[in-house]
Description:
Layout: H1 8-12, H2 15-24, H3 33-38, E1 42-46, E2 49-52, E3 57-60, H4 63-66, H5 75-85, H6 96-108, E4 115-119, H7 122-137, E5 141-145, H8 154-157, E6 175-178, H9 198-210, E7 215-221, H10 236-246, E8 250-254, E9 278-281, E10 292-296, H11 298-301, H12 320-335, H13 338-357, E11 363-369, E12 372-377, H14 389-401, E13 404-405, E14 412-415, H15 423-443
Parallel strand pairs: 3-13, 5-6, 5-7, 7-8, 8-9
Antiparallel strand pairs: 1-2, 2-3, 4-10, 9-10, 11-12, 12-14
Helix pairs in contact: 5-12, 6-12, 13-15, 14-15
The structure holds pyridoxal-5'-phosphate.
Pyridoxal-5'-phosphate binds at residues 65, 121-123, 126, 149-151, 221, 225-226, 254, 256-257, 282.
Amino acid sequence: MEYQAVSIKDIAETMSSQLYLQEQQYMSPGLQEVAQLSQLAIKEGSGCWLVDADGRRYLDFMAGVAVCSLGHSHQKYVAAIKEQLEKITVGSFTTENRLALMRLIASLTPPGLNKIQLYSGGAEAVEAAIRLAKSYTKKFEILGFWGGFHGKTSGVLGLIGDPFKKHWQVLHPGLHLAPYADCYRCPFKMEYPRCGLFCLEFIRKVIENNTAGGLAAIIVETMQGTAGNVIPPPEFLPGLLEIAHENDALLIADEMITGFGRTGMMFGSNHTGIRPDIMTIGKGMGNGFPISGLVSTEEITKSKPFSKPSASSSSYGGNPLASTAALATIQTILEESLVENSRTVGDYLLNGIRRIQEKYEFIGDVRGCGLLIGVELVKDRKTKEPLDKAVTRQLFLETLKRGMMSMNYKPNFRVNPPLSLSKEEADVGLQILDDVFAFLAKHIPYKR
Ligand SMILES: Cc1ncc(COP(=O)(O)O)c(C=O)c1O
């Protein structure tokens, strides 16, 4: 497979960019950074490729931020939704597809996690998981992590573990944060495994000294997405489960990104064999249809007020169309062995990026699990100081110009293509990355 580069000047003069600029007259500021930077109008997508309004093709290494698991316009997915559209689309009544979806999810989650409630967005599901933890424990405090992200609604905004949460005024009370096991940027400047997982000891101290004795739950991404696809060591999650239970609190595993095959196993939790008390799911489970959910045990979900009539549900959660979309997505993930593909093509891509790393001093770290790969772009491998954003934005535009949509507009560069990525497509991506990194090394002063 070959790719053809176009110039940035050409991109600025395209129909795609004209449409973008016209829309800007109405669009509130605050649109996703990648949409603002690329200024693209997308017409359609097929498999791992996006097509803009001018017919230009882009290899999609972003997948709507790990949403598009099957690839774009997958035939089975399209057919299932079309068929359902003609039947019924709204309501919370049982449908055959919702029953099949619930049965399927319960067959895939760790044993005992078989009670499900469905929602439309990720933050909504996380908020519901927190309500559930409060209902069960009759306590109110939540511990999240530095680098963590669980959505932008008021109840979870305070769980964002970076400066994004500044200046939104009063945050929800009772939220606490502790350092995540981000070994490349260990806040304690220790090295794994010699550290003996000091971060877990520190978390115990945070709970002891920072909380008011009312810890309801620890919420954690099994691998951190927004922070740059950070993979914690295997002892971290089991350690957190233990700490949560020591405190009569629950462990909520936010599997929004890591669920349904993204990491080369069905769930991020599967890598360490833990059974969280609550799992939140979304993104890749609907392949783009807004559906999310929580999964927990019978004992936990029956607690009140969560279990009172209408207390855990919502207007759109699991409606006939949403359930059909998720059912078609998960069935296709299984039928087409996309979890295995995520593992094998993920390893292939990871090794390819590691080979590229050997050539460029500014690639500080490459890590990955399935098709969840993180690359740290740094000024200096020793100091690990991140590349300036001005530089990574240029890098992003150079990548776009070569026909690839990626998330390298930030120094903590995330690679998360559709789970259906082939090795040939991975090769195209690797070639483009190699070319843009060579361009950076030659033309962009990255040590400013
Ligand atoms: C781990 C995790 N949880 C929750 C969310 C929030 O999802 P949504 O944007 O659908 O509200 C995200 C979104 O990126 C996420 O990555």
